[in-house]
Amino acid sequence: MHRLVTSEYKCAWYGRELVVIDRFFPSSKLCGACGTVTAKLPLHVRQWTCECGAVHDRDVNAARNILAAGLAASACGDGVRPQRESSRTGRSSVKQETQRATAGIPRL
Q1: What's the mean pLDDT when you consider all of the chain?
Q2: Cβ-proximal residues to 84 (8 Å cutoff; 6+ apart), any chain
Q3: What are the residues whose beta carbons fall under 8 Å from the beta carbon of 45, sequence distance 6 or more?
Q4: Among residues 29, 34, 35, 71, which one has the least CA distance to residue 47?
Q5: Separation of first and last alpha carbons in the chain
Q6: What's the burial of 61, exposed, middle or buried (CB within 10 Å: 0-12/13-18/19+)?
Q7: Do the Cβ atoms of 39 and 4 come closer than 8 Å?
Q8: Domain segments of the chain: what residues?
Q9: Between 5 and 92, residue with greater pLDDT
């Protein structure tokens, strides 16, 4: 818990966004190539081959899957900053609406 609080504080300090993924997300067992989750993968197994033929280093694969999950959450707004009311500027974050062009070729 202390790490999470420290991470939240550091992110706020540097104007960054902290995305927390589910603790039980199968990051090291999820094939980054095809999305298949390997049912059993003992901790002593450091490298594994998926049914699709992709060979994974367990830690590198987990890091890539965690990055992808974080980027997906950021892009979709899925649970990102649920407790945060406003940004550092004091303005609430709201969905941006499409702006009408005042010059150039208008969108159809």
Answers
A1: 78
A2: 93
A3: 58
A4: 29
A5: 50
A6: buried
A7: no
A8: 23-81
A9: 5
- In DSSP notation, the chain reads -HHHHHHHHHHHHTT-------TT--TTTB-TTT-PBPS---TT--EEE-TTS-EEEHHHHHHHHHHHHHHHHHHHTSSSSSS----TTSPPP-PPPPPPPSSSPPP-
Strand partners, 78: none
pLDDT tens figures, 45-88: 999 999 999 999 999 999 999 999 888 887 765 544 444 444 44
Place of tokens 């998926």: 50
Q: Which amino acid is at 10?
A: K
